[in-house]
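[Discussion] Sanity-checking designs against the backbone

I'm trying to build intuition for which residues belong where. Below is a structure token string of 368 positions. I'd appreciate it if someone posts a full sequence so I can compare it with mine line by line.
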């Protein structure tokens, strides 16, 4: 695929199927009926990373500051422009000027240039003010794989919803052959819980088709955004390969967590894909054998989201218009044995969309 960049506007599209997924970063995305022959258009001068730091025992390392991190993109040192730990905004990051933003080689990560637009001196304001809480999309498998243990899965999801921070927004989607956007992104926990309890099982599983559409919905949102997939079996109905989902999630800064209720050895191919996809986006994959494991997995995801450092930077000039490798390292001897988990890069993609399969139910989620 040819890669040609534009300074402040990028067109991002999944390879292979050419999905026409259209939105503007500064406004709500269009209903599905208006999405024909369109493309993803993202204003992207800001790269956002969600970073988990753990010690050798797997405990989260908290209280770090911007100076504790060293970030490179294609081995080019980058300057942190905004920094947030969990739900606590921090002001210690260095701001970038408007001229710096305009001269930077932009990246395909789906983060709009919003910082500093109204600042009287032209300097960028901390992004943390735009990133309170997380935007979490729950994608629940309601295919015919889910006839067993359906109620237990609903209980585990309901417990996860109740445990989330008040500042977090949650959307509840379900999928079998098609995607059902049961509850758009909202802070109303009662609406989400009602959506969870209203689901019914049936039909084949088109996980990758529906997960890609969910990534599309999350892409234009600012701040921490994650998709939590609850899957009970392999994909047997998708026309989209998982590599397309993985690449779009990486390029839009969307974390994917996957909980599978099947033992890993039952379907080695799905296990490999789930582990690879979650790791590439900075998330985790879990394989739960019973309802207790399911609840533990959701609890682990909740803790992970609460302890993420959200770091953003304006990329330095870079001629590379394809895959850009990101490296995040900790600075200093006291952090030498700690571990960092985040996405390892993103791709600058530019392509016109032609046609794509579309599920019948398509009102987009409420971006508010």
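Best answer:
Here's mine. Compare freely.
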């Amino acid at each position: 695929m040819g890669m040609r960049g534009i300074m402040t506007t990028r067109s991002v599209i999944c390879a292979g199927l050419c999905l026409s997924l259209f939105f503007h970063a500064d406004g709500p995305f269009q209903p599905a009926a208006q999405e024909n022959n369109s493309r993803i258009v993202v204003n992207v001068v800001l790269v956002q990373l969600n970073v988990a730091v753990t010690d050798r025992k797997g405990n989260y390392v908290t209280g770090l500051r911007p100076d504790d991190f060293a970030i490179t993109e294609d081995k080019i040192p980058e300057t942190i422009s905004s920094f947030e730990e969990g739900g606590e905004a921090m002001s210690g990051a260095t701001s970038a000027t408007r001229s710096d933003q305009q001269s930077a080689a932009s990246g395909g990560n789906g983060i709009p240039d919003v910082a500093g637009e109204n600042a009287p001196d032209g300097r960028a304001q901390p992004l943390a003010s735009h990133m309170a809480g997380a935007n979490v999309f729950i994608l629940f498998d309601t295919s015919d794989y889910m006839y067993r243990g359906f109620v237990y899965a609903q209980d585990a999801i309901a417990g996860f919803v109740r445990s989330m921070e008040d500042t977090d927004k949650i959307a509840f989607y379900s999928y079998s052959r098609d995607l059902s956007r049961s509850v758009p992104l909202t802070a109303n926990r009662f609406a989400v819980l009602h959506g969870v309890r209203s689901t019914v099982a049936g039909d084949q599983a088109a996980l990758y088709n529906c997960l890609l559409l969910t990534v599309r919905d999350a892409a234009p949102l600012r701040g921490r955004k994650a998709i939590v997939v609850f899957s009970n079996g392999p994909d047997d109905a998708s026309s989209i390969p998982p590599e397309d989902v993985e690449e779009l999630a990486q390029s839009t800064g969307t974390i994917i967590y996957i909980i599978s209720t099947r033992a890993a050895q039952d379907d080695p191919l799905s296990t490999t894909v789930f582990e690879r996809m979650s790791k590439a986006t900075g998330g985790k994959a879990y394989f739960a054998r019973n309802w207790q494991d399911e609840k533990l997995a959701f609890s682990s995801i909740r803790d992970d989201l609460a302890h993420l450092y959200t770091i953003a930077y304006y990329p330095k000039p870079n001629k590379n218009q394809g895959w850009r490798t990101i490296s995040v390292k900790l600075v200093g001897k006291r952090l030498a044995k700690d571990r960092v988990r985040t996405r390892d890069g993103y791709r600058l993609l530019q392509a016109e969309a032609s046609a794509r399969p579309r599920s019948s139910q398509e009102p987009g989620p409420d971006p508010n």
